[in-house]
Amino acid sequence: MNKTIGFIIRNGVLTEYVGRKVDVVVPDEVTVIGEKAFFMQNIRSVVLPEGVTAVMNSAFSFCRELVSVELPAGLVEIGSGAFMNCVSLPSVELPESLVSIGAEAFNFCRSLQSVTIPAGVRSIGKSAFCHCDSLKKLEFRGAPKNTGMSAFALCGKLRDFTFNGGFSALIDIKNCFDLTNICAAKICGRLSAPADLTGAVEEYIGLNREKCVLAAENAVFEHGDIDALKNLLAFTGKPSPALADEYIERASDFAQMTAFLLDYKNSGYSHEELEAAENEKFEKELGIREFSETEWRRVFEFTVSGGAVTITSYLGSSPTLEIPAYIGGLPVTKIGRQAFFGRTDIESVILPDTVTFIGAGAFERCRNLKTLVVSANLRYVEKHAFGYLCEIERVYFNGGADDWAGVRFERRDSNPVTDEFYIGGTPVREISVNIDVRAFTFSPCKHLHRVEIGENVAVIEDSAFSDCFHIEYFAVKSAKWFENCDDIARKFYIYALVRAYKAGNTDLCPEICMILDDFIKMQKL
Q: For the stretch 93-130, what's the b/e string if a residue is b when 16 or more beta carbons lie within 10 angstroms of its beta carbon?
């Protein structure tokens, strides 16, 4: 073992960096950067010597301050998770010698803006560049034989593509990319690809025109790209005056684009067209005229079945999202599975009282969603609906405590509550329930202090109040629910009741008092 100052090296493998420098130059004798060699290190830059051929799994993962990395010309392999969660890394130049990029190699590199895949790369692992939120430009110089599932998924700003071969049909790329982004790039003149792939993209656009045009609009106004705007208008033709107004509003941060659109509007419409558009806008603001189904399809993807609407995707870009109660005269009753999955641009959501069902993963990974207004008639929420990375600060429920107690949450991460919870506009500090309480309904209520259980409550399911560690007061009118608990739930509730009982903070029926007295005596509490 060679211990050069700051480095532990075994037979050419750098196994651990133990130095204090934030700008690191790796010694020339190193040929492999070992697993987790720099894991979670507070380094700012790193230069690898020419002899390094492999960067192994998780070598630089969670180096959150890393802003510069120089990879050597002879590098062949980048392992799984090698640079995962290097959230400050703005760019990386991959050498032409590179052959393999492992799974999640650059996952969650949120500052990465452009990537060029060298011609020699033959394999790109699953989720290799997933969650690269700032990634805008991607070029393939060659034709990887194997590109893993979701390799470039959830790269919401990716709008500029160059394919120099290898992807001859949509079937080759549909599992690696968001096809809508590629179609938006084609509409905006930002796709360079072989003729067979371009033809397949055009065919897809023809079948999904509305969705692809909306994605192109979002790309245009996010980047302020006036050339892309001209390509968009050439593809769609003259927009309605109302849509032109929407474009002008969205372009407000870009002076040149705003001026172009104002000129376009002033010269492109008759007085009668503009007057009719103003009247229509006024009537909608007054509620005299509803949005048509076609207009709603500019905002949402949805399906219609059994006389009701299910929202399946959000096509808009506003951070404040209000789901309509009705579309085309039919009630919106369901939020479909993964309908808003990974939408980091959404900050608040209002669900109408017509919604009764929220599907699995509907708001999963919506990491910037902070406020949710929940419909009073909600009845069922599937697993992971508010799962990974979704931590909502404020949840408002329009019904009462009994309404919430009756909601069926499939799992703990089905419940959106993580911090402040409001029922009927009041912060939940105390609740009174008079119906059976479903599993997980109040388990995340960290601010809950007082609970009253009515005499009609026959069942309180497992985990209904788990993690409610600040309950200080219980009022219990019946012992039926306690007798129906399983052993695990009974153990949780009896200890919570005993704490309040011994402190004198209870109003209990005689049956519960007898149970607690016997338990205290038996346990010598």
A: ebeebbebbbbbbbbbbbbbebbebbebbebbbbbbbb
Closest among 38, 53, 134 to 89, alpha carbons compared: 134
- For the CA atoms of 213, 215, 221, 226, the dihedral, rounded to the nearest 10 degrees, stands at -50
Closest CA to 25 of 68, 76, 87, 80: 68
Q: How far is CA 207 from CA 110, 174, 213, in A?
A: 32, 15, 12
Nearest-angstrom CA–CA distance, 343 and 341: 6
Mean pLDDT of all residues in 162-179: 69
Q: Which amino acid is at 363?
A: F
Among 129, 79, 71, CA closest to 102: 79
Q: Which residue has the tokens 């503009």?
A: 274
AA letter at 467: D
The pairing of strands 191-192 and 146-147 is unpaired
- 3-state secondary structure (DSSP) of residue 90: coil
Identify the pLDDT of residue 172.
59
- What is residue 79's three-state secondary structure? coil
Specify the pLDDT at position 98.
97
> Tens of pLDDT along 299-320?
898 999 999 999 999 988 889 9
Which has more pLDDT, 178 or 345?
345
Phi/psi for 468 (5° steps) reads: -90, 75
Residue 278: pLDDT band with limits 50, 70, 90: low
**Residue closest to 215 by CA, chosen among 151, 159, 152, 258:** 159
Of the pLDDT bands very low, low, confident and very high (cuts 50, 70, 90), residue 288 is very low
Does pLDDT of 171 surpass 70? no
Q: What is the residue whose two structure tokens read 């609009």?
A: 217
| DSSP 8-state code for residue 468 | -
Q: In this model, does residue 73 exceed pLDDT 90?
A: yes
CB 465 within 8 A of CB 485: no
